[in-house]
Amino acid sequence: MIKKGIGRQIVLHYFIVIFLALMLVEVVFLFAIRAYYYDTIYNMVSNHIGATARSALISTSAGDYTETEYLNQILGLLKLPEAELQILDGKGEVLISSSGFESDKPVQTSDIPQALASGGTAKWIGRQATTGEPVMAVTTTLQQSGGQVYLARFVTSIEKVNQRLTEITLVSLAIIAVILFIVLIVSIGLANSIVRPINNIIAVSAQMAKGRFDVRVEGDYRYELGEMGSTLNYMAEEIVRSNQIKDDFISSISHELRTPLTSIKGWSETLDSGGYDPDETRIGMGIISKETERLIGLVEELLDFSKLQQNEMKLTMGRVELKELLKEIVLNVWAKAELKKVQLRLEAEGESFAVYGDANRLKQVFLNIVDNAIKFSHESSVIVLHLVQEDGWVRTSVQDHGIGIDEQNLKRVKDRFFQVNTQGGGTGLGLAITQQLVELHEGELDMTSELGVGTTVSVKLPFFEEGPAVRESQTEAGGEQ
């Protein structure tokens, strides 16, 4: 017995489809074989009538005989072995019969009026009224030259034919039973070939649901089942990787928060104890202020990421001149670049580089990109900020000659919480936030890099077009995306 489930449904549906198909074939076959046997009998009688009826009428004449003698002559010429021949008048009364039995009632079967109406031959299949035996009656009209109409009615038993048809039916049903048994075995095997992998996948999924992400779906499954198993294994790998990234992020952000908090706490206690001159107090307050700003930056980065994830980031859209924005960014990071003796160079091909966007968020995007370029550049190197117009777009490229990124890490560098160098500090959210902000501006961010050679980050933004088609000045990021 197959237990309840998809296996039973597969077997049941497969069995029903084959069963209905076989029943349809069986019905068509039985009707065809029955028609074949019955038509054979009918054609034999019809051919006999066609061959003898005309010669019987020509060779006999009612004027030479009494009616009884005439009918006997017709009976002798038309009779057929294994069939009763009846000569009837136009009302269906039996005038004479080859069996010798007299009938006191007229024949009322459908072949009589059909033969009279058509003037030809008609057929009727049914049971003999007196004996209940299954018979076939073939009736044809016989019309003399004087106008007298007689009917020649051949009645033959079809009981043996029906017995033969019953035997054929039983044999065909036995064959169908064997076929259905084979179908049942095959369908059970087919169901098991589908259900067994599904049960395996369910078992692995149940273990993953309990937190065991080291288990995998094993087995070389084909088609959709193979894709399902591969997808589940890939999901487990991604969960493991995400958990590792999350753990690394927690460790990193804990360190990032602890360092400024330790400095703030230490200098606060030191200043609280008193006894320091104004210069030392100024230095301590400066450190506290600097570390506080660093903490605020970390918190703001986390808040921005949270807003982006929940589609709650609001953009104040308007015309932004990228060339002026990049000049401002260069001034903001100039001091940091000077510490590493890194030169910043702005190159622009064209006159107007206006885009439609949020000036503050675009400044955040390019400030993050340029800050990363400085952080990972070699001392005394050059960072080039390049602006160019391209068919309705403004492309901004930031090219450094720093440590670069290998191909494996380049594919993941824009993932949230991912850091190429976990010792370098930060949350690993900078590029993830940058990527999403660029997408909110309907732009594109691309990165190319070669380890030990440098990195180029390219941002494409739609060119600003004046006119009534300018979009609303304030747009919710989650609403238009």
TrEMBL record:
Every HAMP domain range:
192-244
Instruction: Report keywords, A-Z.
Output: ATP-binding, Cell membrane, Kinase, Membrane, Nucleotide-binding, Phosphoprotein, Transferase, Transmembrane, Transmembrane helix, Two-component regulatory system
Q: Which PROSITE patterns has this protein been placed in?
A: HAMP, HIS_KIN
- Location(s), subcellular: Cell membrane
What topology in the membrane does the UniProt record assign?
Multi-pass membrane protein
The UniProt entry, under SUPFAM superfamilies, shows:
ATPase domain of HSP90 chaperone/DNA topoisomerase II/histidine kinase (SSF55874), HAMP domain-like (SSF158472), Homodimeric domain of signal transducing histidine kinase (SSF47384)
Where it mainly occurs, coarsely classed, is membrane
Known catalysed reaction(s)? ATP + protein L-histidine = ADP + protein N-phospho-L-histidine
Q: Where are the transmembrane segments?
A: 12-37, 168-191
What would be an example GO MF term here?
Answer: kinase activity
- InterPro entries, sorted: HAMP_dom, HATPase_C_sf, HATPase_dom, His_kinase_dom, HisK_dim/P_dom, HisK_dim/P_sf, HssS/ArlS-like, Sig_transdc_His_kin-like_C
* Residue ranges annotated for the Histidine kinase domain, each copy included: 252-465
Quote the EC number. 2.7.13.3
Q: Could you tell me the superkingdom of the organism this chain comes from?
A: Bacteria
PANTHER family given in the database record:
SENSOR HISTIDINE KINASE CPXA
Q: What is this protein called?
A: histidine kinase
Q: What is the lineage of its organism?
A: Bacteria, Bacillati, Bacillota, Bacilli, Bacillales
